[in-house]
Amino acid sequence: MNAFILSLRDQKFGGAVTSGVLYKALPYWDVWWNDRLPDFTLLTRGQRLTLLLHGYNNGLEEGRDKLVRFIGCLEQQGSTDLMLAVLWPGDSWANALGSWAGALSYPAESRDADDSADNLLTWLVLHVHESARVAFVGHSLGCRVVMRAAQRMVRDVTVKKPILDRICLMAAAIDSDSLGRVEPTSYRDAAKQADRIAVLASQEDRVLQVAYRAGDSVQSWWPFSGERSVRALGRYGPEGGSPEVSAKIESHMANPDRGIGHSDYLPQYPPPAAPLHHTRAKSEQFVFEFLSRRPNPDWPAERP
């Protein structure tokens, strides 16, 4: 397995955003690599590093399990990329009250997402070679971490840093117009500079239909949040934006008959007795083909 784990967590559940600790990922355990950071930098030289980020309401073990198994799915598709699973504290003790009550803690989690993005970019600048290309694959609120980190990558021209490659956003818990909106809290610069952005969405996503709408409505009243929309990118697809931005984005909507829900893009957790080697949405097939630059990448969930 050609994969590493970067943990920005200090606790199994909740906790603060940290500067990051690196591990080498193995199928069932991880090896401490934080004392070999120069070796990691050399590994990335001239290579593409694909970062994968889980979403909201994932503890450390759940996030790690989903991402490492998703990496395994990508490798079965044929991926040879160097991959980095990023674990960040996107879970709140409020979630103990239930998934819908936990949605009301979304404003606090969005701040953790932004802090995670800032710390992630700092880590990438320090430990990824400037000749490397960085691709991002995010799920749910992890897409906010992805897009903020990517936005800062292209905006900050004073620091040498890796090159922004492709971005894939799955069930993205960010505003549907945020890729093209001209505001400080939007991601328009990253959308323009990325090689290409893919959006996988489903109108059958009940979490984004209810929880995101409730949480984003609360956040719109949160001081300095910059939130304006209650339409999630991962349910409605990209909306608005100039032709220059739209040309960089390809949107894929799941066939309603497939019933693709919010958790279907990553492997099931906890895994069943006989773990599947694919996700319910078959998102790993699309991600592999998209990152491999195959023309017209196929997402089986989109087909009739």
CATH homologous superfamily classification: Alpha/Beta hydrolase fold, catalytic domain
Beta-strand percentage?
A: 15-25%
What is the general shape? globular
Low-confidence region ranges: 93-104, 216-226
Number of domains: 1
CATH topology: Rossmann fold
Class from secondary-structure proportions = alpha/beta
Helix percent band: 25-40%
CATH architecture call: 3-Layer(aba) Sandwich
Beta strand count:
9
* Alpha-carbon Rg, integer: 18 Å
Counting DSSP H or I runs of 4 or more residues, the number of helices is 10
Distance between the termini: 34 Å
CATH level 1 name? Alpha Beta
Largest sheet: spatial strand order: 3-2-1-5-4-6-7-8-9
**How is the main sheet built?**
9 strands, mixed
Order of helices and strands: EEEHEHEHHEHEHEHHHEH
